[in-house]
Each structure stands twice: as C-alpha cells, then as structure tokens.
Amino acid sequence: MHNTKLKILMIGPCDSGKTLIANFISESINLDEVNITRPTQGVRIVEFELSNLNVNGKIHNVDIELWDCSGDHRFESCWPVLRLGVQGVILVCSSNTINTAGREMELLYNYFVSQPKLSAKQCVLFYNNIEEQDDMESLNLSPTFSKVSQVAVNMKSGGNRLKIDFSNYIASILQTLNKDN
Fold this sequence. Notes:
There is one protein chain. By secondary structure, this protein is an alpha/beta fold. It has a single domain (2-180), classed as P-loop containing nucleotide triphosphate hydrolases (Rossmann fold, 3-Layer(aba) Sandwich), CATH 3.40.50.300. It has helices spanning 18-25, 79-82, 98-114, 159-180; strands at residues 2-11, 43-55, 58-69, 88-94, 123-128, 149-153. The chain is globular, with a radius of gyration of 15 Å. This is Intraflagellar transport protein 22 homolog. Pfam families: Roc (PF08477).
C-alpha cells in the first residue's frame, strides 16, 4: 500500500461549476444545494482521500488537497502562490462560459501547466455541460489541448462517471510522477 499526497488546482471561468464539481468528487456535497451558486472568494481548499486506487498494479491511498480557485481575474495576483507545488490542474468550463472559454482555457493552461512545466497528463479539462445542449466541439480549443484529456461532465445524470474520470485522472498524475522519480 502506497500513501501519496497530491495538490490539485481547479480553475476556470466564473460560473462554470468548479465548486459543485469539487464538492461532488470530494463527497462533501449537499444535493439540496446543487442549484445554489456563490462565487468563490480567492480559493477554497477541500481535503479528502481517494482509497484503493490501482496504478500499475500497485494500490495507492491518495490524500488530495483540491484547491478550488475563483475564476475572477481580480484574484490573479494570488496565482503565483496557488501554483506553488501543484501536481495537477483541472480546468473547468461550462456551457455558461462557452463564448470566452477557448481563450480563457489557453491562458490558464499556459500559466498553470506550461510555465511550471507540468506534463499534459497532469492536466484535464472538465466541460460542465449545464445546459445539456452544447458539446465540447463548440469550445474551439487550440491545438495546445490535443494532448489534454477532455471530459464532458453532467452533474444531473453522470455523477458516477465523473468519479471514475477523476480517479483515472489521479492515476495518470501518479504514473507521470513515478516516471519522473
């Protein structure tokens, strides 16, 4: 059994559902509050454990420190501190933010993934399909994202799928970090 601690950053445009996703994957959600949104002020850190994760035939317990970051650019002065020691980045956008998401994802990817020299496998893009009408094609992402996993998220019907996708993402980070050691 291997015990590992990971710092994961979750960031994207305002009103894309980052906190809802963070609460869901950390199992700290109250389903009555699914439709209540409050902007995150700066950052909110959620800690939880992912148990019995199989990575290359080895079982891992992973302590996750998920930094749920505001998408509001008035907190941009905090970004250098947020990315210190980060081992994974979850970019979140939604059908609410589709018009600006492509440019915003590029900016965030460059700052939080490229500059600290993380690999594309340490990043995932969650497309929170709130309206259930748009698909990820309408994001118009640049070729930068061709190597980044892109996951459509539907909190109403696909919650279990999201947990599986998140576990696969964490396994991908662990594989990447183990190659570097």
